[in-house]
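#struct-pred
JK: can someone run the complex with 2-acetamido-2-deoxy-beta-D-glucopyranose? inputs below
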Amino acid sequence: MRFLPRLIILAALVITTFLSWRLLLWSPATSRGGDLAPKAEEGFTLTLDTFLHVQQLRKKRLRAFCSQSGKVTTLPRSQEERARLFSNLRVSTKLDLLYCQVPSTGTEEWQQLLERLEKENVTPAVPLSYPWQHSQETQLREFNLTETEAMLGSYTKVLFVRDPFHRLIFTFMQDMGSSSSFSSFVQDVLDSGQHNSNVAWTPLVSLCQPCLIQYDYVVVFGFLSQELGHLLQRAGLPADSFLAEFTDTQVQWTYSWLSEQMFSELSLQQKKQLSHFYRWDLAAFSFSSSFLSGLFSTPETW
Ligand SMILES: *[C@@H]1O[C@H](CO)[C@@H](O)[C@H](O)[C@H]1NC(C)=O
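RT: done, C-alpha cells with the ligand placed:
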C-alpha cells in the first residue's frame, strides 16, 4: 500500500469511527470463552452479573492455557530475571492497582484515568492488610522481592487484551512511512522473530506474564468503559466521570472493517505465519472474531 491508498484508508477510518458511534452492529460467528463481541449492539449495557460471568470464562480459559503451555509460573528470586519478565508491568501504590501496559490496548487512557484519581487523592475503600509506604515508583521491576510478593498478593491486577491483528493494524497506521505496504510491514514483523521484537506487536502472553501473575480481571478492547466501570467500583474507586474518554467501542467497529481489507492483502503463507506467531495469545484469550483465529486448529505447537 503506497501513500495515497493509505491516506484513503485513514480517511475512511475517521469517517467510519464517526458513523459507527450510532451504527455499532456486527455479528461474528461465535461467543465462547468470554468474548463480548457478539453482544455489540446499540445500547448494550453490561450488567454486573454478566461482567462477573464473562470474567470467570476468560480466567478459566487462561488457566487452561497456562496448565498446558509451560510458561513461567513462579516468581523468580533474581532481581535481574524479574526485571526482564516485568518490563511492562506498572503499579499504582496509591490505588493498590497493578496492570500490564501495552500500546493500543487501552492502557494509555487507563493511565490518564489513574493519574487523575491519584491527584484527586482518592484511596481504595478496601484497605490492605499490611502497612504500605507510598512510592513514586510505577514500575513493578523496581521493587524488591518482598514488596513484589506483597503487591502480587494484594493489589487488584488488571490485564488489557486486544485482537493481535488489530494491534498490528494500529502499529502500521501509527508508523506511517516506515513500510511501503501492510504486507511488507507484516513481513518485517515476522522476520524480526519472537525474541527480538517490538513491544507494539509482541504477543501479550510474552509481555504480561499471565501465567505468573494471577490477574483478577482480563478486560478486552471493545467494552472498556463498561468493564472498567464495574472493575473500579469493585476496587472501591470512583471513576464514573472519567470513563467516557474510552473510545474503544467506536474504534472497534472500524478495525473490524479494516481487518477485512488488510487481511486480504496478505499471502496465505503470511496469514499462517502470523497465526503461528500469535498462537499463544489466540489460545489464552478469546478473540472469536479475529481473522487470525481458526487458521490453526491444533494447539500442539504451543
Ligand atoms: C525491600 O524494600 C523495603 C522498602 O524499601 C525494605 O523495608 C525491605 O527491607 C526490603 N527487603 C529486602 C529483602 O531487601
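RT: quick notes.
The longest strand covers residues 156-161.
The pocket of 2-acetamido-2-deoxy-beta-D-glucopyranose is lined by residues 144, 146-147 (CB under 6 Å).
JK: thanks, will look after standup
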